[in-house]
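So, could you explain the following?
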Amino acid sequence: MMRSMYSGVSGLRVHQTKMDVISNNIANINTVGFKRASVSFKDSFSQTLSSATSANADRGGINPQQIGMGANVASIVNVMGQGAAQRTDYGSDLMIDGDGFFIVQDATGFAFTRAGVFEVDAAGNLVDPNGYKVCGWKAVEDPDNPGQQKVIKDTVTPINIYEGDNLYSPAKQTTSIEFTGNFNQTTNPTQKNTMSFYDSQGNKYTINVQFEKSAANPNEWTVSLPTVATPVADSVEVTVNGDKKMYLPNLKLDGTLQFGTDGKLQAVTGTNANANATSLDLKGIDLTKLVDENGNLANLGGVVGDINIDFSTVTQFNSKVTVTSETKDGNTAGNMKGYTIDANGIIRGTYSNGETKILAQLALANFKNPAGLEKAGNNLFKETSNSSEFDGIGSEASALGSKLQSGALEMSNVDLSYEFSEMITTQRGFQANSRIITTSDEMIQELVNLKR
């Protein structure tokens, strides 16, 4: 009889534990990145009153006689299913759409989270609300592509948006200019356009380019730079940084554009012709000879190498004249205006000169058994012996079949309707077990009363 009371007590305990878990789930229904827990029970050990016997010639077999001793908690499992998306429109808020965990670090080591509530502190560190630094891989200069950055996927380290030269974008000199558009074969025998380029200091130079249709061949246009005689003979007028008039002597651009009857460019010939047959090379630009309106040297300290001028897409049809030039590279120096994070976790700085630069890339941790992680509070998880170990390097989102959503957060995966139904069954289970205790108590009371 005492066994039934103890079984009832064990039932109360496990149902109370389940109610504690349900209550915690409901309390965190609006906690970003929260993963609900699920409780399962198991029966406790059983007392054997008689063992099983096998059948023989005289008797049949007898099953064992056992009395169970109540219930225990079998498991409390973190259910790692993904929560719904919550839009925030805040650029540093991130949601993992798929597998993986953000990697954060403090003095005690690494921790992992699905809550991408991040911001940049005064020192430039990307941090979570607890001050943990978000980790990933840093970008370095790409030796194969000068002036470009690439990410080295090595041991993860805290990401700092402002470190090194991330706060500015250096000036770059121009190496390529492209002309596009159309020449009209029957009108406008002379066309004037502007062409701009940058020196190594970021100074912008704009010069006039003249296209003149050949009188002998309507499918040919000569290219040249108009020159002036003063203040320096045979010099080209240059507008520097959009307002200053200066002059550069001995600058030549001589060539001929040859079009076919199909309106497409066939070849470029002349003194500055390039070997690829559709472009000219502007060589030997000597900015040390640049002078102002009074003929005084006005060296601005920058240099420019050879510039390739591409005409390959220019056409000649009987339609509107639309020829324009575009600087394909080169820029002034710029300061950081902000940053963006793409679906693969690559962080790019955006700059006032219109340039972008790769700064770093967020890394994600993945575990063989995510449910084996230990909740550490503050939306953080820690690895355990049953989750598998973090390798210290991590993976990019695309390698896990995941992607990052900027301006969104992952909501809790708690389903309120499910939790309420679980609460009802748990309450009924608790009531039933309490009735076992009161009934067993009444039976014991009857035994006590037999002595009267």
